[in-house]
Amino acid sequence: MTFGNAVQRLFAPSARPFTIVVGTIIVLGLFDRGTGYFFSIGTVFSVMQLFATLGLVALGLGLSMLIREFDLSVSGMVGLAGCIAVLTGASNPWLGAALGVAAGLLGGLIQGLIMTRLNLSSVGVTLGGLLTMQGLTYVLTDNQTISYPKIAVPLGLNAPLAGLFSLRSVVALAVFAIAALAMRYTRLGRDVIATGSDRRASRIAGLNTDRVVISVFAASGGSSALAGVLLSYSLGAASPVALSDVLAPAAAAAIVGGVSVIGGRGSPMGIAAGVLTLCILSSGLSAIGVAPYVHDLVTGAILLVIAILDAPDLAQRITTWQFDRAERQRNALKGASS
Amino acid sequence: MTELTFPAVLRRGLPRARYIALAVRLAAAAAIAIYALTTPGFLTLLSANALFTAISFVGCVAVGMTFITLTGNIMSLAIGATVSASALIFLACLSLGILPAILVALLFGVVITGAQGFLVGHLRANPILVSVAALSLLLGGAAFVTGGHHIYPSGAGLEIFKDRFAGIPIDAWCFFTTVAVGQFILSWTRIGRLMTMVGSNVRAATAAGVSTTATVTAAYVIAGACASISGILLAARYGSGDMEIGVGYDYTAIAAVLVGGTGIAGGSGSTLRTLVGVIVISVIEVVLLLRGFSEQLQYLITGLLVLCVIMLHTLGERR
Question: Within a 10 A sphere around the Cβ of A62, how many other Cβ atoms?
């Protein structure tokens, strides 16, 4: 039974994201068969580069899912903030970055205000927000790819630090650390969990849930905006069409990271583990040298397995099925004996 | 509101907030109509039925998406990829003849999306995660089979889609039929009523002995069939296809569903509302185009208007 207990503990909701990361590393390591392409500093570096973009978006989306909402506008925010940063940061990159992140915070704030004041669902509002932000990005860039004049900025952001990290991934990790500490040790963090677990009860207990919702959406906007700023700066360009497909992997990463759509469950560290899983799959598979489509197939299969294992009715359905089978066997025996 | 029949209105009277909401909605609709009708070239477009063709592709997808939203499963992120994949399969199977090709493409959409519906309905798996998984599998599978190349028709027969029937393009007929059949299913069949019930309260429906498995799977099957119809029409229109052909259709479709007034929480909605939503969005787009707004501004204004319409819908209602 101790083995069973250990397994159970590994797959408990709070530990599962980390179990999945370690499992992914072990499985990819086995497939690597000691050629050393997977366990290399280069792979770690590229994992962290992917993490810098996907991680911050998944963090924002995951926070909104924690309070039982869904922020569809994250991908619009990535594009918009990137364009703002590249357009306004030509002379001073810090100014551009600040304006980009400020736009994200403001966008999230406005969406949160609309939701709470008008009592609207987040999917509708953020869908409108997504379309609006995409439109704004098209207007700002005049429907063209805009290159960033300062070569030093992309080089500086992407230069390896200690071989494993870059300035970009260090910034992303720092944001995750701040989010994790804030969720664990501040009043706001506990308020977020309370709002996600049961909003009515929290409100009755005297919590200003509207303020929590607005804060979470502002944080989500700011986090995805930072991802967009970092991405555009490190590419040295911004384009209105890039990265419209970041939403699906970000949602997947948040859910793999243990954020429950029922709300109130999940943590920034879990989200980080979920993002790492997807990034390790992505760079690990290409390091081993499989065709790109295998990556899609493997990711899809893993997500499907998690979706099935995570389904609330799975245990009940299995019990019913076993019961039915036992019943059938008993009837068959009865039929045989009589 | 549309669901209040007239006697009920007389008995209870509309709450005042609803009167205001109704007035604002009518005013908004009138404003859009007047602005459209005074746009030079809009009436010729209407008489040439060009507008109908333009709305058919996304319209079919939106009708399908209505069923997913209605059963309380928000949206499927895999629908765009299903449209693309159905288009590819249709083109690749054309050598078998036009009818078998249509059937194979429809079957594909039904099986792929129905399987997602089974997981969502039977195990109550998270619909967003299931659809993201399906999206990955579809993209990977398509890249494996096609190698990322364009697919061209393997046989003849695409001409029949360019025909007109009673002066209206075939694409538009397909779309209107989808809307009508969808509305028939929702209003007049048992399974359609059950979909609304499951959408408004899963636990109550289960307690009443409704099989969520069958109901949700049926909703997804319809969504898959609609996506395939859209894929077939797109393939026939463009004469070739790749996985890019349906990109973005999921977002446009859910926008049309919400603009039409189907509630995102599930349990209230209809394909007729989605028809209205599709028409409103396309009219806005076409009018902006005819009035000579730049492409960038078209995107921005459409986005803002969609946001406004969605906000209008919940005016005077309590969530």
Answer: 30
pTM of the entire structure?
0.86
Pick from A142, A249, A301: which is nearest to B296 by CB?
A142
Among candidate residues A201, A185, A208, the one with its CA nearest the CA of residue A267: A185
Q: How many CB atoms lie within 10 A of CB A88?
A: 18
Cβ(A247)–Cβ(A69) under 8 Å? no
Q: Which residue bears the tokens 């400020």?
A: A102
For position B118, what pLDDT does the model report?
95
Q: Which two tokens stand for residue B64?
A: 């399908």
Q: CA-based Rg of chain A, rounded to a whole angstrom?
A: 23
Q: A311–B304: do the CB atoms touch at under 8 Å?
A: no
- Per-residue pLDDT for A35 more than 90? no
- Tokens at residue A190, please? 């506990």
Rounded to a whole number of angstroms, the distance from the CA of A122 to the nearest CA of chain B is: 9
In a domain, A300, yes or no: no
Dihedral sign for Cα atoms in the order A247, A249, A252, A258: negative
Range of the domain at A163: 2-290
> Is A203 part of the contact surface with chain B (CB cutoff 8 Å)?
no
Asked if pLDDT for residue B1 goes beyond 80, the answer is no
Assess if residue A192 is contained within a domain: yes
Strand B168-169 and strand A237-238: pairing? Answer: unpaired
Residue A70 in domain: yes
Single-letter code of the amino acid located at A201: A
Residue A122 has pLDDT above 70, yes or no: yes
3-state secondary structure of A172: helix
Show which of residues 106-125 on chain B sit within 8 Å of chain A, judged by CB atoms: 119, 122-125
**Amino acid making up residue A179:** A
pLDDT digits (tens, 9 = 90+) for B148-186: 788 888 777 777 777 777 777 888 889 999 999 999 999
Out of A72-81, A268-277, B230-239, B297-306, which region has the weakest mean confidence (pLDDT)? B297-306
**B301 close to A (CB below 8 A):** yes
Contacts of A333 (CB under 8 A, 6+ apart): none
Neighbours of B40 (CB within 10 A): 8
DSSP A36: S
Q: Residues of B numbered 136-155 whose beta carbons fall under 8 angstroms of chain A's beta carbons: which are they?
A: 136-141, 143-144
Q: Which amino acid is present at A109?
A: L
Residue A82, Cβ density class (10 Å: 0-12 exposed, 13-18 middle, ≥19 buried)? buried
Q: Which residues contact B218 (CB under 8 A, 6 or more apart)?
A: B117, B191, B195
Contact B253, B79 (CB under 8 A): yes
Nearest chain B Cα to A128, which residue?
Answer: B307
Quote the number of domains for chain A: 1
Percentage of chain A surpassing pLDDT 90? 16
Contact A72, A248 (CB under 8 A): no
Other beta carbons within 10 angstroms of residue B153's beta carbon come to: 19
Looking at the DSSP assignment, which residues form a beta bridge with residue A42? none
What are A19's two structure tokens? 């179990």
Instruction: Select from A68, A121, A302 the residue whose CB has the most chain B CBs within 10 Å, as the one to mutate to test that interface.
Output: A121
* Structure token digits, residue A301: 């299969």
Q: Residue A255: name the closest of A295, A173, A313, A310 by CA.
A: A310
Which residues of B, range 20-79, sit inside 8 Å of A by Cβ?
74-75, 77
**Exposed, middle or buried: residue A44 (CB in 10 Å: 0-12, 13-18, 19+)?**
middle
The span from the CA of B249 to the CA of B59, in Å, is: 10
| A37 in a structural domain | yes
